[in-house]
Design brief:
By secondary structure, the protein is an alpha+beta fold. The protein has 17 helices and 15 strands. It has four domains: 125 residues, no CATH class; 167 residues; 67 residues, SH3 type barrels, CATH 2.30.30; 134 residues, Alpha-Beta Plaits (2-Layer Sandwich), CATH 3.30.70.100.
């Protein structure tokens, strides 16, 4: 991809170089009267004097130096050096001056930026370079003149300004629209980019990956860091192009297009880098979420990843518009804020649901997998989104509840229970002797004590009511289990043991019936059991039940 891009760039330079040079020579219908080339009466005339007298076919830097506001002690050589460097600043930054757009009014006032008699060539890219009226003449301001050296070093950093004087010594003969030294510079630049790309790729693929493998992060490096590092190498290539393309002093129209492309490419590539780094950050938070017991953290990580990626795209797009396309984003942001207000009024329910989701993630009233009840909805939480929460009901249907309603509703979270209550009433017949009731209640307590999942520090089992047809024993216990199926299993085991105990003690359970009592026939036993009335006998049966049925059952203790 890099090779193809560089070939396209070379084709662009060689193909459009001559045409761009011709456009520059004939641009804006330059006047024929030589007096217009030494005139400072308006921003137009000053710019014309500055540009025309620094052209190769009319190189008069002393005349062009008159456009600078200089102190009285500045020598003529220094003035010439400054005006040449100012022209190189224009060329290096790709500032294409369209003379036809410049004001010709001698009393021009910039009402947009300062409400003064000044003129900015490009206030966004070169805010320190502007014309200012001094007396009857328009000149580059004293502020601009004082900062020419500084701006020149920023335009040609790392000593590349020296190449502006060295490369032209290779020869100025023109080939396919470009001078010989420019062609040599283009090929040297392409060669340097290829070499730097290969070196950086080798360091990343071999050095960085080897180091990460030694540290135990080989898979993370190969999956997340290696793609980011390769994109960083592309960014470095763009930076090299941005620095050295200025030294070639290509036709200004070509440089202006290349500069715009490179200025847009830099924030674009940085946006891609941060976009991919979001995956690395999300992976780190996912590892942290795995260490917590809450499943809501696992649900939060994908939402966080999507939010961060959207944020990176929005911020990156603004920088591309501002730095690359040179668009003023302040009116855009202002209009966006006004439109955002209208949008907020129209989408207030959506915004309410969004903040409701934030409150859910902050307060954590439930998490994924919890059984909750909210109003008429009863089911298990499957997913918590930015707008709604998805709940799987016990009918296996799916219910979506807006988060704004959940944030205001009463939620009964069954999933946060540490203990699960089991309450029932055991009804026995009225003919059960009080001594047997005592033994039966004690047996029920022994069942609870010997069950592996019941709560041992709090339970209530008492004979507490006399109903119309039965004697009622309250059976109130708790299971220390995390899920409903385990609770049902515990209930099943308790009820089976209760039935076994009742059969062992010959305790009959009552239910609404009508009984017709008849005299017993000779040699025939009635259905009503015969109780011996001895508590010691009942206690003996209870001990036998505990020893045989509770303490000796495998896997029940």
């Amino acid at each position: 991809m890099i090779k193809n891009t560089l070939l396209y760039l070379l084709f662009f330079l060689l193909s459009f170089g001559p045409a761009a040079a011709q456009v520059l020579t004939d641009q804006d219908n330059l006047p024929v009267d030589p007096q217009d080339y030494n005139n400072l009466s308006s921003p137009y005339n000053t710019a014309l004097t500055f540009l025309y007298n620094l052209r190769e076919d009319n190189f008069k830097p002393k005349v062009a130096a008159k456009t600078l506001t200089l102190e009285s002690n500045v020598s003529e050589e220094t003035a010439v050096d400054l005006v040449i460097k100012l022209k190189q600043i224009f060329d290096g930054n790709g500032i294409y001056v369209r003379l036809g757009d410049l004001p010709t009014n001698a009393d021009y006032v910039d009402s947009v930026h300062s409400n003064q008699q000044i003129y900015f060539f490009n206030a966004q890219r070169m805010p320190r370079v502007y014309l200012e009226k001094s007396g009857n003449a328009w000149k580059f301001s004293a502020f601009t003149t004082a900062h020419i050296q500084e701006i020149h070093q920023e335009t040609y950093p790392f000593g590349t300004s020296r190449l502006l004087n060295l490369l032209p010594q290779l020869g100025n003969k023109v080939y396919i629209g470009l001078k010989f030294w420019q062609l040599v510079g283009v090929f040297i630049l392409i060669l340097m980019i290829f070499v730097s790309h290969k070196v950086f790729t080798f360091l990343v693929d071999r050095g960085l990956l080897y180091l990460l493998e030694r540290l135990g992060y080989g898979k993370v490096g190969e999956k997340y860091l290696l793609p980011v590092a390769r994109i960083v190498s592309i960014y470095l290539i763009v930076v090299l192009l941005d620095i050295f393309i200025r030294v070639l002093q290509l036709p200004i129209q070509v440089v202006s297009w290349i500069t715009m492309i490179l200025n847009a490419a830099k924030p674009f590539i940085i946006t891609i880098i941060f976009y991919k780094l979001v995956d690395l950050v999300s992976m780190y938070f996912a590892k942290l979420a795995e260490k917590t017991e809450s499943t809501l953290d696992d649900q939060l990580v994908p939402l966080l990843r999507k939010t961060l990626k959207a944020f990176v795209i929005v911020i990156g797009s603004l920088f591309i518009l501002k730095d690359g396309l040179q668009l003023d984003i302040v009116p855009f942001l202002t209009g966006l804020s006004i439109g955002g207000l209208a949008f907020a009024l129209a989408a207030q329910d959506t915004i309410k649901n969004f903040f409701g989701s934030i409150m859910i993630f902050i307060d954590k009233p439930f998490q994924v997998g919890d059984w909750i009840t909210s109003g008429e909805v009863d089911g298990t939480v499957e997913e918590v989104g930015f707008r709604s929460t998805r709940i799987r009901t016990f009918r296996n249907s799916v219910t979506y509840i807006p988060n704004g309603k959940i944030a205001d509703a009463t939620i009964d979270n069954h999933g946060l229970r540490k203990y699960r209550r089991f309450f029932t009433t055991l009804t026995i017949t009225y003919d059960t002797p009080p001594e047997l009731i005592e033994v039966f209640v004690d047996g029920l307590r022994e069942i609870v004590k010997n069950h592996p999942t019941t709560r041992k520090d709090y339970y209530n089992i008492y004979f507490n009511d006399l109903s119309a047809y039965s004697l009622n024993i309250m059976f109130y216990v708790f299971f220390e289990v995390p899920t409903w199926p385990q609770e049902l299993q515990g209930r099943h085991e308790l009820l089976v043991r209760i039935l076994s105990l009742a059969n062992e003690l010959e305790v009959r359970f009552a239910f609404p019936t009508q009984t017709l009592h008849m005299e017993n026939f000779p040699e025939k036993h009635g259905f009503t059991p015969l109780y011996d009335g001895s508590e010691e006998g009942y206690r003996l049966k209870l001990r036998e039940f505990v020893e045989k049925r509770l303490k000796k059952e495998p896997g029940k203790n």
